[in-house]
Structure prediction request, 472 residues.
Amino acid sequence: MTILGATETLTGDRRADLRFPVDFWWGAATAAYQIEGAVTEGGRTPSIWDVFTATPGRIEDGGTGETATDHFHRYREDVALMAELGLAAYRFSVAWPRIRSAGGAGVNTAGLDFYDRLVDALLAAGITPVATLYHWDLPQELEQAGGWTNRDTAGHFADYASAVAGRLGDRVRLWNTLNEPWCSAFLGYGSGGHAPGRTSHRDALTATHHLLLAHGLATRALRAAATTGQVGIALNAGRVRPVSTAPADLDAARRIDGLLNRIFFDPLLRGAYPADIQADTAGITDWSFVRDGDLAVISTPIDALGINYYQPDLVGAAPAGQSDPGTPYPTAQDIVFHPTPGPVTDMGWSIDPTGLREVLLGIRRDYGDIPMYVTENGAAYVDRVTPDGRVPDPERIDYLHAHLAAVHEAMSAGVDLRGYFVWSLLDNFEWGYGYSKRFGLVHVDYATQARTLKDSAHWYREVIAAGGLETR
Ligand code: FCB
Prediction:
């Protein structure tokens, strides 16, 4: 990795005060269920999200992934857009339900063919392929057998990882085994806000462990398949701040940090679950799902960490008598999430780039000098195409500018950060919010599937071309 230098030559001839290394991965990210559509084509079997979205009341606008942005058919057009932006890297996810054949007896080669073509199209456009193996779309057949509460799912995931690595392992440069396992476990099995929509804190903790086990087994499977790329995982690391220094508020912050961050980082990077969290949750589970040898598998060394960051959390103890029975966090019914002062995005998420800098520095301080990528960062706004064919989105430009500046600060302070992926390349299916939230650099008209570069896409192209940002 190139060291940041004061007078380093840039990749273009434009001015940029905040320079990034010449080999920095300027990227954008997507996920299969959110963009592909074509849910019954190419031998794909149903996923938990097909079932969840078909259940009335689960998705805000009743949207499903049936068509989404039709990327399955339009991937060449989308790769051309990426090339137009000058992206160095593209993070996509592979849909497990496209690869696992019905009944699970074998591999659906038609599914592998799709990603094979996508990866070749990326390489032909000079874009580095980054693949996520699990962005929440569990095959429904596996959910019927218990999903992530069934230990066998971890083994099936490793088999799937081997199959994908066997086909793409010579060309994918970075693998993320899982995307945000916190969401899979705590929203999928705890609060029920995500597929499969179960509501059991015990199941959420069991699923957490089996997801981590799946990560470790898949990491080993990817290496055994002689993949040439780096192997890592993408976590929604959060900066958890107490609302005051009162002991009860500090304890709320400790618990949320434990259940959001340390429950993943500690087993992955230290080979142990946090003792305080195991003690706190002893009334929910005895943790007997952790078997001898599991933590050695989970802590199999990785090459890089992926960090997804959107906003910090401000937490404190709930006033006496107040409780949140629907919280995704086990043992956190008596904790309140406070709004962070200041502006918010269309998701209602607070805009605070200092949180991103602190997350990156905190990981380095607590877990050492591990290479990192910001695998997701971005903002939803209400974007409209104007009569002259533009999509003005100045707030998104401000958001991305401020967060890239925070990334630059973290790098200047010594964080080994190698790339940044905007969430998202395209407007897409935003899970429980359906199509009501737009995160894309590229606007999608869902009636016509027309793509229009937003102003932020033009801005990002300039940043990439200049190799950095101008200070504001
Ligand atoms: C992340 C998800 C991604 C997208 C963004 C907004 O938690 O990984 O799929 O929904 O949030």
Q: What stands out?
A: Residues 201-224 form the longest helix (24 residues).
